[in-house]
């Protein structure tokens, strides 16, 4: 174990500033012994793979930081699958695969680590290829009880216990074990069109409705700050499909600032920034993110956008924002019971970001209160939760866990009672 004086640079400012007890960088016999003897207090042990969430470290807690010693990527040219260790981030994975003419459905940012994959992983290409968890073929790690495991995607002869464990690991792994290695399916690299534009609320509601009937190779995402920026990503399947691609692009609103780019892959996406007219906020911000899930909006898209407009009018500062990603297509086709991502009917993932100046408790309280208010406004349209960020330090953790796992929660809790009986990892 390493005392906390060693620099612990992580993306998330809140996690970076946490006054940790110390950290480990290897899942070795020493750490496993401490886990088995329940010697790491206070619990839970925090896990850091990409270091992008607020809960990869916490005041007074131990952190297991996998970023330095778990960096291997091995592409198997024959099977077209890839084995990654837990410290690989999505930029590194995609850059490696692109050289092999392959891709993985990474999310909107390449800085995320395998937490992106383990918590579901919604990509702009998920409608075509499925969620990131749908690409997992094999998982290696250590349960919260200290036992090592290696699990394979279930087949016809897989035992019920193994099927349950697989289901738990795909979407709820952070509650059950420490994942050290994943084997993942990859897909053929194809070029993409990226359309972006500022939209009015009415244009957004129309675009949402149009996008709901797009083919799987197109998806919409948007972000709302002082104004709305929307983005469409369309994969160019083959030259024969160019007419269809043009058809999709022609449906989009014609605005003064709309732009169309051709990009080679998702690692060429620019970081999505909150659209603000004048940023007066401090550079360093703390934040929490709450991800929701809901089915197609259809004719309710206008009232949904109106609700969001009301929320945005109440935001306590300019770095608090709302955004959304589109699911559907292949994310809907996987069976509800195959993974812990139970909201297979979801078409939209809106997420609420509350942000505050680290020095202002008042701003923090206002931002967290605004998040709860925003949640209750969006909940009628999006009752599910995408648990991509853990909030066991916040009062809404139980509600969030319930909304994330629904009827599967008791099964998951049962699994946790054997895989992590002492609660080494975050509570369910
Ligand atoms: C800029 C940005 C863009 C994003 N875009 C998307 C997107 O397009 N789609 C999407 O679905 N999500 C997106 N997210 C959310 C992101 O995928 C989740 O917050 C994810 O949990 C981050 O994982 P991480 O490894 O980067 O972070 P970390 O903070 O290191 O880990 C996050 C959580 O995952 C758990 N965890 C990490 N490593 C392990 C491990 N080895 N074993 C078990 N549990 C582990 C930990 O409990 C930790 O609390 C985005 C986040 C950011 C910051």
UniProtKB/TrEMBL annotation:
A Gene Ontology molecular function term of the record: oxidoreductase activity
Domain FAD-binding PCMH-type: 13-189
Record's keyword annotation contains Chloroplast: no
Entry-linked Pfam families: FAD_binding_4
Keywords assigned by UniProt, alphabetized: FAD, Flavoprotein, Oxidoreductase
Cofactor: FAD
The keyword Acetylation appears for this protein: no
Superkingdom as given in the UniProt entry: Bacteria
Stored Gene3D superfamilies: 3.30.465.10, 3.40.462.20
Similarity comment: family membership: Belongs to the oxygen-dependent FAD-linked oxidoreductase family.
PANTHER family reported in the protein's UniProt record: BINDING OXIDOREDUCTASE, PUTATIVE (AFU_ORTHOLOGUE AFUA_1G17690)-RELATED, FAD-BINDING PCMH-TYPE DOMAIN-CONTAINING PROTEIN
Protein's name in the database: FAD linked oxidase, N-terminal
Source organism (scientific name): Prochlorococcus marinus (strain MIT 9211)
Phylogenetic lineage: Bacteria, Bacillati, Cyanobacteriota, Cyanophyceae, Synechococcales
């Amino acid at each position: 174990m390493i005392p906390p004086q060693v620099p612990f640079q992580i993306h998330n400012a809140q996690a970076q500033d946490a006054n940790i007890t110390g950290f480990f960088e290897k899942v070795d016999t020493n750490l496993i012994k401490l886990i088995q003897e329940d010697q790491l207090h206070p619990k839970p042990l925090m896990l850091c793979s990409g270091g992008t969430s607020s809960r990869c470290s916490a005041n007074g807690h131990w952190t297991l930081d996998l970023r330095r010693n778990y960096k291997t990527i091995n592409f198997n040219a024959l099977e077209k699958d890839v084995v990654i260790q837990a410290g690989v981030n999505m930029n590194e994975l995609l850059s490696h695969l692109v050289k092999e003419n392959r891709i993985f459905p990474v999310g909107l940012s390449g800085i995320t680590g395998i937490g992106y994959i383990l918590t579901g992983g919604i990509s702009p290409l998920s409608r075509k290829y499925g969620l990131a968890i749908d690409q997992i073929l094999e998982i290696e790690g250590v349960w919260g009880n200290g036992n090592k495991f290696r699990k394979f995607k279930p087949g016809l002869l897989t035992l019920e216990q193994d099927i349950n464990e697989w289901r738990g690991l795909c979407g709820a792994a952070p509650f059950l074990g420490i994942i050290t290695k994943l084997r993942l399916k990859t897909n053929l690299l194809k070029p993409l069109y990226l359309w972006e534009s500022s939209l009015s609320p009415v244009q957004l509601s129309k675009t949402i409705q149009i996008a709901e009937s797009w083919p799987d190779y197109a998806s919409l995402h948007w972000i709302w700050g002082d104004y709305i920026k929307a983005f469409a990503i369309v994969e160019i399947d083959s030259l024969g499909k160019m007419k269809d691609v043009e058809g999709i692009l022609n449906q989009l609103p014609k605005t003064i600032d709309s732009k169309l780019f051709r990009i080679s892959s998702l690692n060429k996406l620019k970081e999505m920034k909150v659209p603000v007219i004048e940023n007066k906020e401090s550079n360093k911000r703390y934040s929490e993110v709450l991800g929701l899930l809901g089915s197609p909006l259809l004719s309710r898209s206008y009232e949904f956008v109106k609700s969001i407009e009301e929320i945005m009018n109440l935001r306590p500062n300019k770095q608090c924002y709302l955004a959304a990603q589109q699911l559907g297509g292949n994310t809907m086709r996987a069976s509800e019971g195959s993974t812990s991502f139970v909201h297979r009917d979801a078409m939209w993932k809106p997420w609420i970001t509350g942000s505050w100046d680290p020095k202002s408790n008042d701003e923090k309280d206002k931002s967290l209160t605004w998040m709860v208010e925003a949640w209750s406004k969006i909940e009628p349209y999006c009752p599910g939760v995408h648990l991509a960020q853990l909030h066991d330090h916040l009062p809404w953790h139980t509600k969030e866990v319930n909304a994330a796992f629904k009827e599967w929660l008791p099964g998951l809790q049962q699994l946790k009672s054997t895989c992590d009986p002492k609660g080494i990892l975050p509570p369910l």
